[in-house]
Amino acid sequence: MEKRVSLISIFLVAALNAQINIAVIDFEGKNVSKDDASALTDRLRAELFLTGKFVVLEREKMDAILKEQGFQQSGCTSDACAVEVGELLAVEQMVAGSISKVGQTFSVTARLVGVEKGDMIGAGKCDLKGDIGDVMTCLSDVASQLAGNQPVPRSEPTRTQATEPTNTVELKAKAQPKDKVFVKGGTVSDIDGNMYQTVKIGDQWWMAENLKVTHYRNGDAIPNVTDNTAWRGLTSGAYCEYDNNSSYVATYGRLYNWYAVTDSRNIAPTGWHVPTDAEWQTLVDYLGGDAVAGGTMKEAGTTHWNSPNIGATNKSGFSALPGGYRDYYGTCDYIGYYGHWWSATEDGSLSAWYRYLYCYNSYVYRSLSSKQDGFSVRCVGD
User: Fold this and answer.
1) Are both 117 and 182 inside the same structural domain?
2) Residue 158 domain-assigned?
3) Exposed, middle or buried, 13 (CB in 10 Å: 0-12/13-18/19+)?
4) Which of 40, 49, 67, 92 has the fewest CB atoms nearer than 10 Å to its CB?
5) Cβ distance 219 to 298 under 8 Å?
């Protein structure tokens, strides 16, 4: 494990006055050792500092202040606890997060929480397949997202993770297509009688809403699993509602694990199916490529997407919404910040491909995640 990064100083003056004072509490490790989680937290501190937006309280100073106050940081993972720590440290914002491992796939999530109001100001995430050392390399992406910056495209992808364009200039050039086909106005119904708007994008017909169905096409019920422990142990299809709260369903649809998505009884209406990884990429390429397609897919405005919802025009009519997700451990998070959608394409026995969009940029991210995760579903015509 890489040696912990120590920042040179704390709360600089004058030239740094425009920056935000923050502190980072240790990541919660899920199937990851405490030492590894701590080392990754230190690396994130350094990456946050390098964004130029933050003045980051170094670990030694933070530990000394909390010890003086008699506060035990261990087990402090909630936003409420982060705010309590932030008040003791006299910082403006706090970063809390987790790193989990399922098989060979790691997932890093982080939240930026305002100390004064206790509200979530930003979020960042990355998923990758590899070893713990590889996780170090994706933390700059997490830091950029927390800072509200565009991630920096890589010239040579070196890992399987949330992929970004390798040539932003080329992809932006592709975003000026002629005679693009967007046909709205169709509908399709599922076996439960839910009606969905549809849109033709290029040669593909897509649902313009997230799936809500609770039965497979043959009439068999899809189990609604609300218990976190039961959710984590699943190897068969299931769905849930965000935070087990049915009020989210009308707008955001339901969240499904990958086993439900690929069950032979079919989750999609007749004449439709869950898109493969290749079919997702066909859509993204038609809309100009990874760097810009997300803007044409996201619902415009901030009624559902958190501000600033960069680049959102919904020109395609896809009307993507930020329904959040339910992770392998059963925790629901990031509604308003991210929208996640499964593909039908797996990557080994434990993980599968998906796409996600973010309120802070116009990218479409391609990534891997545990098959137990709960994501939104869009269907494409046969």
Assistant:
1) no
2) no
3) exposed
4) 67
5) no
Question: pLDDT tens across 319-342, in order?
Answer: 999 999 999 889 898 999 999 999
Same domain, 218 and 366: yes
Instruction: Answer with the one of 114, 149, 184 that is the final residue of a domain.
Output: 149
Identify the helix (H) or strand (E) that includes residue 172: helix 168-173
Taking the whole predicted model, whether its pTM rises above 0.85 is answered as no
Q: Which of 2, 35, 6, 41 is nearest to 134 (CA)?
A: 2
Candidates 137, 147, 132; CA nearest to 50 is: 147
Domain limit, last residue, from 149, 183, 217: 149
Residues 141 and 207 in one domain: no
Contact 173, 381 (CB under 8 A): no
Paired tokens of 168: 């932003």
Residue pair 347/295 in contact by the 8 Å Cβ criterion: no
Q: Note whether 360 and 148 are within 8 A (CB).
A: yes
Strands 195-201 and 204-207: antiparallel
Q: How many CA atoms lie within 13 A of 248 on its CB side?
A: 23
Identify the three-state secondary structure at position 82: helix
Residue 50 domain-assigned (yes or no): yes
- Which residue segment(s) compose the domain that 142 sits in? 14-149
Helices 79-89, 59-68: inter-axial angle, 10-degree rounding: 90
Query: What letter would DSSP give residue 144?
Result: H
Is residue 262 domain-shared with residue 368, that is, in the same domain?
yes
Q: Does residue 164 sit within a domain?
A: no
Domain count, the chain: 2
336 touches 324 (CB < 8 A): yes
pLDDT digit string, tens, across residues 185-221:
789 999 999 999 999 999 999 999 999 999 999 999 9
Cis preceding linkage at 177, omega within 30: no
Same structural domain for residues 88 and 183?
Answer: no
Q: What is the DSSP letter of 190?
A: -
Asked if the structure places residue 165 within a domain, the reply is no
Domain check: are 313 and 215 in the same one?
A: yes
CA distance 268 to 255: 14
